[in-house]
Amino acid sequence: MNTYKLVVAGPRGKMGREAVALCLRESQFELVAVIDTQHDGALLKDLDGYIEGDIPVYTNMERCFSELHVDVLIDLTTPAVAKTHMEIALAHGVRPVVGTTGFTEDDIHSLRAQAEQKGIGAVIAPNFAIGAILMMKFAQMAAQYMTDVEIIEQHHDAKLDAPSGTALKTAQLISEVRAPKTQGHSDEEETLAHCRGGDFEGMRIHSVRLPGRVAHQEVLFGGEGQTLSIRHDSLNRASFMPGVKLAVEQVMTLKTLVYGLEHLLD
């Protein structure tokens, strides 16, 4: 069994803590360092919430990759820094697995070119929950037959982007099998701005941000005399870790950037 040397960026975040726990419990994963904005030179066990781990903390990612042999960077931080982290990782021959959303098409094109130039893999996943990937696939299948569709996504109130990357990815997948279409009444008028949600080729996307939520999405289809609802709920952040594990294992076999976990499922 191959052993992969991993670095986790953002170990004090909620997702970062789950990723660290994943690395520590999986026998084929070896956590060699973490990247944090503070505590340079400390050990993982010195950080709040940790009681084990003689694993070094770096604030400088370039120095980390220069001093250590690293196979994969797991980055579950923020859109503001994830692109820079990916560029640093690729420049050092480290394969990034990133769960942060907010990348533009130009960002993805540029990062894919960098990965291919190095001949190594990279993964960006708007959602690491395998159930959410299945929801998107089922929604794309349904959209071939039911073309009136709206998406409602709900997340915790600390989420920075709206709509979510999962909602946008769902809409993009649906658009591959559905022609743009104006939905609702032709004389429809919003008496309160934006109450009909965002418009993606006629599909409406609605974003909810509330404390107590984690990650939830429902895709609603309407047809003559019938409706169809496809829903996925992540009840805790551990739900994303099987997908992270899959991405780490698969990224070692890739020589390009893959956007979306669905491309790694059989």
From TrEMBL:
Dihydrodipicolinate reductase N-terminal domain residues: 5-128
Active site: H155 (proton donor/acceptor), K159 (proton donor)
Pfam families, sorted: DapB_C, DapB_N
Family matches, as InterPro entries: DapB_C, DapB_N, DapB_N_CS, DHDPR_bac, NAD(P)-bd_dom_sf
One GO biological process term: lysine biosynthetic process via diaminopimelate
Reaction equations catalysed: (S)-2,3,4,5-tetrahydrodipicolinate + NAD(+) + H2O = (2S,4S)-4-hydroxy-2,3,4,5-tetrahydrodipicolinate + NADH + H(+); (S)-2,3,4,5-tetrahydrodipicolinate + NADP(+) + H2O = (2S,4S)-4-hydroxy-2,3,4,5-tetrahydrodipicolinate + NADPH + H(+)
Localisation per UniProt entry: Cytoplasm
Gene Ontology CC annotation, any one: cytosol
PANTHER family: 4-HYDROXY-TETRAHYDRODIPICOLINATE REDUCTASE 1, CHLOROPLASTIC-RELATED (PTHR20836:SF0), DIHYDRODIPICOLINATE REDUCTASE (PTHR20836)
HAMAP family on file: DapB
Subunit structure: Homotetramer.
Protein's name according to its UniProt entry: 4-hydroxy-tetrahydrodipicolinate reductase
Organism field: Shouchella lonarensis
Gene that specifies this protein: dapB
